[in-house]
Amino acid sequence: MKKIAGVLLATSFLVGCTTTDPYTGEQKVSNTAWGVGAGAAVGAASGALIGGDGESALIGAAAGAAVGGGIGAYMDHQEEQLRARLEGTGVRVQRVGDDLKLIMPGNITFATGSSDITPNFYPVLDSVSIVLKEFHKTSINVSGFTDSTGSDTTNQLLSEKRANSVSSYLVRTRIPHTRIQSRGFGERYPIATNDTREGRSQNRRVEISIRPI
């Protein structure tokens, strides 16, 4: 019972740790709170397994919370910087736990059927690069996607070229290539319908996923 109490106490860090998204007005749990709660829960479970008692679980919870909270705060600050720099650019900043995702639709990234970055998109990528260089304790995954127009083979190749174009540009801005991975997914994983022009524009996108190391 003491072990269970320790884990429940650890996860209770999440309660009341909500913030308001300034762009959507949505109440959400901050990255710091998620990190504290997750770290505390893992630490509590590990402490209980190793020490075999409630006291060990609480010690583990405290240690895990400290680590998790540090990661969460780090990603919170990075999210704030990205939102500030990308406001009004058409790039959507999405958060899942401690991971951040930048969703860049086709109407601002590439011309139809092209893997050449449009000139007006360079300043956007420059802004992203500034933040990525400041918060360097992260890995970066660049994913390319297309709409359903064209053959599977053509779309797969185009998505790979687009992801590589963005990755190469980030490297040219002096982000170490060892931090970056790129991959194309063709027309898989649409986020909108391919039956409308607007939907296809949303599906022709590049996503940059940022994950703490």
Q: How would you sum up this structure in a few lines?
A:
With 213 residues, this protein is α+β, with helices and mostly antiparallel strands. It contains seven helices and seven strands.
Could you characterize the architecture of this molecule?
The chain is α+β, with helices and mostly antiparallel strands and about 210 residues long. The protein folds into 2 domains: about 1-75, no CATH class; about 90-210, 60s Ribosomal Protein L30, Chain: A (2-Layer Sandwich). The chain is about 50% helix and about 20% strand. The chain has 7 helices and 7 strands; from the N terminus they run H-E-E-H-H-E-E-H-H-E-H-E-H-E. The strands form 2 sheets. A 5-stranded mixed beta sheet has the order 3-4-7-5-6, with helices on both faces. A two-stranded antiparallel ribbon has the order 1-2. Strand 5, helix 6 (about 150-170) and strand 6 form a beta-alpha-beta unit. Helix 2 (about 30-50) runs antiparallel to helix 3 (about 55-85) and helix 3 runs antiparallel to helix 5. The longest helix has about 35 residues, at about 55-85. It is globular. The two termini are about 35 Å apart. The model is unreliable at about 5-10 and about 55-65 (pLDDT under 50).
Summarize the SSE layout with pairings.
Elements: H1 2-11, E1 18-20, E2 27-29, H2 31-51, H3 54-86, E3 92-96, E4 99-105, H4 106-109, H5 122-134, E5 138-145, H6 152-172, E6 180-184, H7 197-203, E7 205-212
Parallel strand pairs: 5-6
Antiparallel strand pairs: 1-2, 3-4, 4-7, 5-7
